[in-house]
Amino acid sequence: MAGSPCPIEVMKEVNRKMHMSEIVIVYGQTETSPGVTMTTTKDPLERRVTTVGRAFPHTELKIVNTSTGKIVPTGEIGEICARGYCVMKCYYNNPSATHATLDKDHWNHTGDLGILDEEGFFKIVGRLKDMVIRGGENIYPREIEEFLHHHEKIFDVYVVGVPDIKYGEELCALVKPKPGQTMTEEEVKDYCKGKIAHFKIPRYVMFVNEFPITISGKIQKFRMRDESIKVLGLEEGSKVETA
């Protein structure tokens, strides 16, 4: 399973409904081809659906504080960095982009936020650029997406940050119901109440038939955000700078 983040519930369904009991996850980027971590068929199912596995042989990985660049303690969130034979030398004829991605020690800064556990398994919690800062609280949309995937009526869901004059940013959930199902905004919010922190409950809920994707099938969250701002009439809030 590779290409883009796969919700835990989808991985479980693939195991059960498609009888693919040995499916594994590979994590990497074009800049770190073909990958830097992978689960194995011998890993317990829970590890294979909730993590992206351990580091490849001859590949170094670390998780660093996005402000200081220092390695964070085990179990804490930070940016995943990779170094090794699989990491690119540079972006062709683009030194500024290369400098922004590769540091002087040739660590590739992936832009992905993750956690390393005590057994060496990595878990992706979201993209650095997708992180939402609401009233000073860091919110990782993937956590909320994973939670909402458990709802029996939801086929797929993505969460984006939209501008807010009071809090800087608020959450908007774009929900695709399962075929034949109808939902209300309150139904989604009520499902969250008492189960996740109050500040993580999406303020806005929009129902969609499809999500914007690239030619290669990757989700385009920036387009979701732009469309949400337009539909919700939040253009004025987008003029407010957030720290």
Q: How would you portray this structure in words?
A:
This protein is an alpha+beta fold and 243 residues long. The chain folds into two domains: 8-125, Luciferase, Domain 3 (Luciferase, domain 3); 131-239, ANL, C-terminal domain (GMP Synthetase, Chain A, domain 3). It contains six helices and twelve strands. It has helices at 8-17, 45-50, 95-101, 141-148, 185-192, 221-232, and strands spanning 26-27, 37-38, 54-55, 59-64, 78-84, 108-116, 122-127, 132-134, 137-139, 154-164, 168-177, 204-207. The strands form four sheets. Strands 4-5-6-7 form a four-stranded antiparallel β-sheet. The chain has a three-stranded antiparallel β-sheet with strand order 1-2-3, with no helix packed on it. Strand 11 (168-177), helix 5 and strand 12 form a beta-alpha-beta unit. The longest helix has 12 residues, at 221-232. It starts with 7 loop residues before the first helix and ends in an 11-residue tail after the last helix.
Name the CATH architecture of the largest domain: Roll
- CATH homologous superfamily title of the largest domain: Luciferase, Domain 3
Oligomerization state: single chain
Helical segment count: 6
Largest sheet, described in full? Answer: 4 strands, antiparallel
Rounded average pLDDT: 93
CATH class of the largest domain: Mainly Beta
Strand arrangement within the widest β-sheet reads: 4-5-6-7
Overall SS class:
alpha+beta
